């Protein structure tokens, strides 16, 4: 099953195709900025029962060096099968489109990134028939952005950097910076960044930190995740209202039936957060002759 971090690490390039030019600059590779980018079919399946799919595939146009095909793979862990599939992707794409092909691998942990960056050689000891050198972006070379002004300069790069540093001990500061950078950003720009960041963090503890940051100012965040948070808040509010209502009803019934409510019992009722249990007590209070009968067995 494809994970949310896996999707976010490559989908961000679908959302912001020109992000690659900044990533390549960060990685120390001199690739001209694109003049346009076109999403290509990601299905690399041949006319035989062997299915091969690259995560994201883009045709990048440049002003001086011409077009090239950019294949982007999100890699969560080491996978020995990639030493066979990645060269296949590159050779197939080169044959299909007749253009130079570049493979970018995005990772979230250093060990996987270092593994992915190893050259893949196909041939014999005396002669390499094919050599593949993936370009790798990960926590080992992506910037740690904790300056709001820097994040605002390039929100897409700041988002990818936050995703690749999901396991960084300082991820809280990174996410706080990104959240602050989005505060005055139009919704159309902020919404996909909020969602991609949430996807990229997956089920890590940092995901809850991001939700908390998003929830601070829901008047700004109008994304799907903020709607989810609002729904959760409404549900909690309704549950809390039911609990308070039943606690008040229980006290009124006890008082109406002349059953003494001690401070201890009042505290017991007020501290109960289980609406089902309060409902049981309320039903008992309608016929109980003493307070002991109401709370019997509790």
UniProtKB/TrEMBL annotation:
Q: What is this protein called?
A: Transposase (putative) YhgA-like domain-containing protein
Q: Determine the domain of life of the protein's source.
A: Bacteria
- Annotated organism of origin: Streptomyces atratus
